[in-house]
Design brief:
Length: 433
Amino acid sequence: MLIRNATILTATGKRYEPGFVLMQSGSMAAVGDGNGPDPKAGAVVIDARGKFVTPGIIDPHSHIGVYPVPETTAHDDGNELTDPIGAGLRAEHSFWPQDPAIERAVAGGVTTIGVLPGSGNLVGGRGIVLHLHPRRGARAMRFPGAPEILKMACGENPKRVYGVLKRSPTTRMGNLRALREAFVKAQKYSRDWEAWITKQQKPRAKKPDDKDGADAKPPDRDLALETLALVLRGDILVEWHCYQADDMLAALQLADEFGFQVRAFHHALEAYKIRDVLARESVAVATWDDWWGFKMEAYDGIPENLALITEAGGRAALHSDSAIAIQILNQAAGKALAAGRAAGIKLDEDDAVRWLTANPAWVLGIEDQVGTLVAGKRADVVVWSEDPLSTYARAELVYVDGQLVFDRAHIGAPWSDFELGVRAMPPSKKETK
């Protein structure tokens, strides 16, 4: 498939106007200036004159599928509010692939999401990175090769949830104590398993009374400690819900104490206050364009947050945290870009596109496969009606792995069985007048 005569925003600093994108066998075969190579026999050629092409949008913080629409108690599967350390939980086991919000996200140009548990627990559980093909189950939607991710939380949410239940933690110091205790246990759990494995690998003479019993028995598995042990080994990316600058600094101190890396702070409305620290420590920020003030720890949120982090050399990404906001993340990038420029920060359109694509790909550990329009990467591509940072832009064509999954001009059957009857209903009399 060859898309030509479009403005190509690659998210690499290169812009081709006009340019082309050639997709072949699910990958991008070539990207560049002009009309591109002569198409082979049978190739599909799209003349995208006047339109824009970007990588697929990546939302690193979504609750689609675990808090599906319509919003009902029966669908409330994102927070297991029974233990503040829920590291043994997996969002995959709550994900509903029939969520109508999935198709709506794709219609907004989104091709990949990081689905996370909620933030009511200090450790909410493992998230899952999904490629937005319509499939019957979460495992079939897993992004190939994506690393494991873990949702953690600090600040108001866990202390409020467990304060209401009259159990620890009820304060920020309680939050940190509970996390430290959990990681101390995870350290011992790791040592016990390493000692057992080492013992099994050593040749030894079998004693007459050794009946392969207690001496050969491994430590008991603990799903929560197993996950935290993988964090300590660096095998799981830590995605940490934090708003206040002091909470983020405390989280970094805890991570340093136990020797693991924070991949990104999510929401992070006060990240601009410690942007030099975050840039130095290579910790990304996944945040909104201008949400603020909905609780005390969100009081100091400012619309220049993304721009200030970028100016400081940090890695800033946009997220939605909402089944509605995910549909217009391109507009959020435009707003954040305008706010930064109004504050005198030197930014270009590529910075804003990277907030939507390249940087969230890094947050989820899939930057080698998606996030930029580069030959050899997966062909996750969006054709926009106009500049994607415009309020008026619409995603017209959306490709995942080179497969057309959304065509605004030819809307097919709904992805969700939940909406089959709704879309098949005839228009009302009022609509036909």
